[in-house]
User: What shape does this take?
Amino acid sequence: MRAAVFHKAQDLRVQDVTEPSPGPGQVKLRNAFSGICGSDLHMYFAPESTGLDFSRPHPLTGSELPQILGHEFSGTVVELGEGVSTVSVGDRVAVYPIYACGTCAACRRGAQNACRTIGFHGLSSHGGGMAEFTTVDAAKLHVLPENVSLELGALVEPMAVAWHAVERSRVAAGQTALIVGAGPIGIGLWFALRAHGVETIVVSEPSAGRRAAIEKVGATHAVDPTAQDLAAAVSSATGGDGVDVAFDAAGVGPALSSALASLAPHGRAVVVAIHERPMEFAPTSLVMPETSIEGTLAYLPQDFDAVIAAMAAGVYDTTGWVDVVPLADVERTILDLRAGKGMKALVAAQ
Ligand SMILES: [Zn+2]
Ligand SMILES: [Zn+2]
Assistant: This one.
């Protein structure tokens, strides 16, 4: 079968590999679509920047490079391994890609998404979504309802990152929010906040193209922080109070600073982006208004279920921010995304 295989930095080949067959408890999937995400770009340019250690076999999965990419993917069940009864051949599914140890401090606290030896199917395992077929444990499958397309199915994973961040914010219906950064995760935050009953959402994004994309799905308060007064926009949208929750989906110091400065008393800032550099920060700014900062990573299985239910309810729209590309174009698309061309690309595996 054809697969996009990562060998080492800047060495990604679409090549023939052996077609897998499912072991006990596994299923074989005919992959449909697989998103290219920021971690794939990190992997391609500087694998060590993913935080995964490729110098030795992964402690949970035993996998080593080369690695088939694709951790945000959908597919159709084509074969059941021994003992699988929870899904049927023909089911269309999204795959929860996390491997967790189950015993570390994070896992014991119910946070398998923060497992200290976390692995991902399509980054550190025996396969991935950017191939014609893959095998995964049946327990990783989330069946898609009939009205959720396989394209949306491949977006469940990145949308679940944003959904989990919104859960971490503990925002309530009728409260107000700021999203800093309108990339794919920022757009996911917008959909997840709407699904949580948040109507007043200010978006800060310097790129005109990204502002246009989030406006196209319905955002009404998109501000260019380099040319407009973000504080004034937040103030006018919230009657001078500030926002209840703010999300840093940009990963640069000024993004978190503006998120903190926009908070109402008792507001919470949630960091969902990866910062490549440290920043200067004044802890006293949290003291006077009793505000707080939370981190958020990936998602739990229930976030997948919640996103799929919201997709079935029609909350999500791919207009204007999602492109589909053939498997043969993975490397070129990674270079395009790095150069700022396009927002979210789905690789068609067939
Ligand atoms: Zn990803
Ligand atoms: Zn663990």
Notes: The pocket of zinc ion (ligand 2) is lined by residues 100-101, 104, 106-107, 115-117 (CB under 6 Å). Residues 150-169 form the longest helix (20 residues). The chain is about 25% helix and 25% strand.
